[in-house]
Design brief:
Oligomer: single chain
Strand order of the largest sheet: 1-2-3-7-6
Radius of gyration: 19 Å
Number of strands: 12
Largest sheet: 5 strands, antiparallel
Length: about 250
């Protein structure tokens, strides 16, 4: 892991130019056969955040530019992670456009995925990029802060939004209740992978948990435009986060 410092200049109310040093951390992780780039960045003043965008050629779409500071930070952290993920492929400070469903548009020869999570005055984002090759699975990535498990423990109705009754029974009788957040993250990553492959959004109800081992989860997906098929989800726990990467 390394810490990158960026000094950006901005003008204060009196017209004087001031400098602010922005520190964010970057590290790489291996999940399955994929390299994950992770960025952790603190909450920033909106002006400083926009200067960071300029220094790293990050284009803020108008809906993002006029959104809450939290949403802007999520977007920027995700794009920073994607830039690091793209560097091994010869792209530096590339400006990623945004698709009609809000997805990042990677260069045509590549596929990539981005996710982010905010907790305790920091935003953590992850991204992974791979070449598009024949028979290469399409991927989707998700990150969740482990403290968010509390929201599931205290609100049963939230489980109903993404788990089938059988899955809830498995959690209650065979799987640790703490696995609910892992299943949520896994399904989120499957939804992204499915969209990347078929350009078609699916719901949680189309995804059913099948089995697991110490390294991966297996789900079945019933959704158009494809026949039912299995999705493999690799995962990694840290003290703070859960990261899942789905392959379809």
């Amino acid at each position: 892991m390394h810490i990158e410092e960026n000094t950006v200049n901005n003008t204060n109310a009196s017209g004087a130019t001031t400098s602010a040093t922005i520190k964010f951390s970057h590290r790489t992780l291996n999940i399955g056969h994929s390299v994950i780039h992770q960025i952790r960045i603190p909450f920033l003043d909106t002006t400083v955040l926009h200067e960071l965008c300029q220094s790293h050629s990050i284009l803020l779409p108008e809906p993002i530019r006029h959104s809450r500071p939290k949403r802007q930070l999520e977007f920027v952290a995700g794009r920073l992670a994607a830039q690091y993920a793209l560097q091994p492929f010869g792209y530096r400070h590339i400006t990623l456009a945004t698709g009609t469903c809000g997805e990042p548009l990677f260069p045509e020869s590549l596929q990539g995925s981005i996710s982010h999570s905010i907790y305790a005055q920091h935003c953590t984002a992850v991204a992974s990029v791979q070449k598009i090759q024949p028979a290469q699975p399409y991927m989707g990535i998700d990150i969740e802060h482990r403290q968010h498990q509390h929201n599931l423990d205290t609100r049963q109705n939230r489980l109903n939004l993404f788990l089938h009754p059988r899955e809830q029974q498995l959690i209650a009788t065979q799987i640790s209740p703490q696995q609910a957040l892992l299943l949520f993250s896994a399904k989120e990553s499957i939804i992204k992978a499915w969209f990347h492959r078929y350009q078609h959004l699916i719901s949680f109800s189309a995804i059913t948990y099948q089995t697991a081992d110490s390294h991966q989860l297996i789900f079945q997906v019933h959704a158009q435009p494809a026949a039912p098929q299995l999705a493999i989800v690799h995962y990694r726990f840290s003290r703070q986060e859960i990261i899942t990467l789905a392959c379809i």
